[in-house]
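HUMAN: Forgive my ignorance: could you write out one protein's sequence and backbone structure tokens?

ASSISTANT:
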Amino acid sequence: GSDADDYSLVVTRDAVFGGARNDSANQAQDITDSPNAFGYVTEAGMGRLFAADDYDDEIREISLATGKIINTVDIPFAIGNYTNVGLATTPTSLLISPASSNAILELDPDTGETIRAIGDSSLYAHSLAFLNDEIFTLTQHNDYPGRITVLDYVTGEVKRVLGATINSDLGYSLISTGTRLLGASYGPETRLIEIDPETGRTEELGVLDMENAWSLAAFGDELYAIAGGSGTVMIYDLNTLRPKPSFILSTTVRIRGAG
């Protein structure tokens, strides 16, 4: 149709959408004379908070409402104390990778069972994010400070590498809000940074009222930030960055990654 035509999307309960993508501009379909059109809807994550604990080599699921641990599964490899862990969620699974060069593993979020390995062992993923059927891996290796490698979620192949414009003090946090890619600096001042998922260009959004943000997660209009090596979970309004009531996990939990 023309630019002047109006279209609406009606979603019904229990509707089933196909997963095939049609995201190329030259594949646009003219639906002017068609009473119905079919498309697909994609999700960013499962809306559940998980944290990797290097004390017991476990993944803890944390209640967003109470902050209590509601489920625990074993990590299928030894993290090692004070080792960074990349952790992210797809709509149906967990993605996890330690910075000690292991491949990314896809896990069942309820049982911890390994579904498959993705990519190879050269990524050194300090943090992971899942956005638009792509996996973003943040590397803070000495040779590649602030490098983000983008993998195809289905094939595991490298699609592009973002590094030329990424600031090396990006820290160890990389998250997806569902539509945006965010990170944070690590140190006395925690700066929230938005990253263009195609070019890697960065824009500072503001400063969080906390130090040493080790891990981030986003749900709706809320940002969850975990201080380095502690069980303190700070919550912020994602639009204003104003703090909300926080909560503290068990003192035996050392968080090295969240998603």
About this structure: Residues 58 and 74 are 5 Å apart (CA to CA). The first strand starts at residue 49 and ends at 53. Residues 12-27, 37-43 have pLDDT under 50 and may be disordered.
